[in-house]
Specification:
The chain contains 8 helices and 28 strands. Mean pLDDT is about 80; it is low at about 1-45, about 75-100, about 135-150 and about 155-160. About 15% of the residues lie in helices and about 30% in strands. The protein is of the alpha+beta class. The chain has helices at about 1-10, 45, 70-80, 85-90, 100-120, 125-135, 170-175, 355-360, and strands at about 190-195, 210, 215-220, 225-230, 235-240, 245-250, 260-265, 270, 275-280, 290-295, 300-305, 310, 320-325, 330-335, 340-345, 350-355, 370, 380-385, 390-395, 400-405, 415-420, 425-430, 435-440, 445-450, 455-460, 470-475, 480-485, 490-495. α3 (about 70-80) crosses α5 and α5 (about 100-120) packs antiparallel against α7 (about 170-175). It has a 4-stranded antiparallel sheet, with no helix packed on it. A 4-stranded antiparallel sheet has the order 2-3-4-5, with no helix packed on it. Strands 6-7-8-9 form a 4-stranded antiparallel sheet, with no helix packed on it. The longest helix is centred in the first third of the chain and has 19 residues, at about 100-120.
Length: about 525
């Protein structure tokens, strides 16, 4: 034992047992009993034993190697099936742009289509069909004609040539040769810029509107100017300087021949543009009129005095009824496409929906719908022209959210909410597609185009150096104009053109034979 301790203390390396040795001596089993051990000091058997290597065992289980697997395409397929939805929400903030991966995303979808057909047997001829099939199939459900089947499919001889050297089938070739839809290009720069001196930098005003006659009206200080989009002619309509007043809002009638002007002293002036004359002045408010909205001959006005007046411009009375639900300044008013309801937003962070029939008769004192999820002023309001009862609204600096509401039900919660990380000044729907444009103030001063209902950013436009407070849409629905405190008006081509509807004659169309 002493000799053993000496060898260990001397730093003599120990040699482990070899696999071929028949003996196995454990460290706890070593016993030194005087002279009973003959030649007991073999170093290869006195050091702690390392675990012996077992001979490799082979079974019939096959474990594939995933070194060459395209994990990005597999993750893309999981996302398309509904997994990873929480990660995709990260792209909804204004600071991220998802437009650069449109082409790569389509390439991955095409690749997934080919894999699904060649391996699982899904018969499709286009990418959109595959996407519809994936979304309609419940998650976890196996395809009816896939790899888990008892019989091999019998392919028709006429489906594909037996002498083809391609590993792809005929349907896969049809998918690859199908016409590719070109990516939509949205210009990043405005196609026209106009100077707008004395355009006020006030969040609660509405100083820009575009008529159905293609004439743009803008309030600059105490004056109202008209710009004809067809001739580019600029006309000074009226100046309130002699009345020591300023313009707080402008709004065109539906036909585009009457312009309503709200002033800071609480008056509303109506002007006939064709005759270039003043029609009448309507009173009632005790403070500035920052919001106006027309419905044929009816006009509603919102003011800092917290009241909403319902007026009939044909009546000699100044107003038919007034509403006092808001507790602070009313800064947003919009009529629904059905003309039976209108929405109002205020600095009290409230969004209300009113029944026009009840308001005009004076029987409605409370709104039909009350939405209170915003935590800042609600100026940005727009009704969807594509879905009945769908309303979108945007909050101010401390809210920064765009929310969608279903006004047909009594639910007080929003359908969808997107945090834009910036003050929402205006929202507007496209007339030709299910898209929403929003303008923003603190702190990014952006114009953002969203795809509804996914709310994926399609474009981010920059150019204004201050808050983009004013927004109007052209009558054809293709262009928008924005105004900001930097005293400029910028025109953008942002929306798609309207689809042309080709009428085809048919023998079954009986109306063609009616004189």
């Amino acid at each position: 034992a002493k000799a053993y301790e000496g060898s260990v203390s001397a730093g003599i390396p120990c040699k482990p047992l070899l696999e071929g040795d028949s003996e196995s001596v454990a460290w706890s089993d070593l016993q030194f009993k005087g002279s009973t051990m003959a030649s007991p000091f073999r170093r290869d058997r006195l050091c702690p034993l390392s675990p012996a290597k077992e001979a490799p065992r082979y079974a019939d289980r096959f474990i594939p190697s995933r070194v060459a697997t395209d994990l990005s395409s597999r993750f893309d397929s999981l996302t398309s099936l509904g997994f990873g939805a929480e990660e995709s929400q990260e792209n909804l903030s204004i600071g991220k742009d998802t437009g650069g991966d449109v082409v790569n995303g389509r390439e991955r979808r095409v690749y997934n289509c080919l894999l699904r057909y060649e391996i699982l047997g899904d018969v499709t001829s286009n990418v959109r069909g595959v996407e519809r099939a994936l979304l309609s199939r419940p998650v976890g459900e196996a395809p009816s004609d896939g790899i888990l089947r008892y019989r091999s499919p019998v392919k028709s001889q006429s489906s594909w040539s037996p002498y083809s050297m391609s590993p792809l089938s005929k349907n896969s070739h049809r998918l690859l040769l199908s016409p590719r839809k070109s990516a939509r290009k949205i210009p990043k720069a405005p196609f026209k810029i106009l100077d707008a001196p004395e355009l006020q930098d006030d969040f609660y005003l509405n100083l820009l509107d575009w008529s159905s006659q293609n004439i743009l009206s803008v309030g600059l200080g105490s004056s109202v100017y008209l710009w004809n989009a067809c001739t580019s002619q600029v006309t000074r309509l009226h100046d309130l300087a002699d009345q020591q007043d300023e313009v707080a809002s402008v709004s065109w009638s539906d036909k585009g021949h009457i312009l309503g002007i709200g002033t800071k002293h609480g008056y509303i002036q109506l002007w006939d543009i064709e005759a270039q004359r003043h029609v009448r002045t309507m009173s009632g408010h005790t403070s500035r009129v920052g919001a106006l909205a027309w419905n044929v001959e009816s006009l509603i006005s919102g003011s800092r005095d917290r009241r909403i007046f319902y007026r009939d411009t044909r009546s000699p009375d100044m107003y038919l009824s007034f509403l006092t639900a808001h507790t602070q300044e009313v800064c947003g008013l919009k009529w629904a496409p059905d003309r039976q309801h209108f929405a109002s937003g205020g600095n009290d962070n409230k969004l209300y929906v009113w029944n026009a029939g009840q308001v005009s008769s004076g029987s409605a004192c409370q709104p039909e719908r009350k939405y209170t999820e915003h935590v800042a002023a609600v100026k940005a309001i727009a009704w969807s022209p594509h879905q009945h009862g769908l309303l979108v609204s945007g909050g101010g600096t401390t809210d920064r959210c765009i929310r969608f509401w279903n006004t047909l039900t009594g639910h007080q919660q929003s359908l969808h909410c997107v945090d834009t990380n910036s003050q929402v000044c205006n929202v507007a729907w496209s007339k030709n597609a299910n898209e929403v444009v929003s303008t923003h103030g603190y702190s990014q001063n952006l114009i953002v185009l969203w795809k509804y209902p996914s709310m994926v950013q399609m474009a981010k436009l920059t150019g204004h150096t201050t808050r983009v407070l004013y927004l109007a849409t052209s009558p054809d629905g293709q262009s928008i104009v924005t105004g900001a405190g930097d005293e400029t008006l910028r025109f953008w081509d942002i929306f798609n053109k309207a689809r042309s509807h080709q009428c085809t004659s048919s023998a079954l169309d009986l109306s063609a034979y009616i004189r």
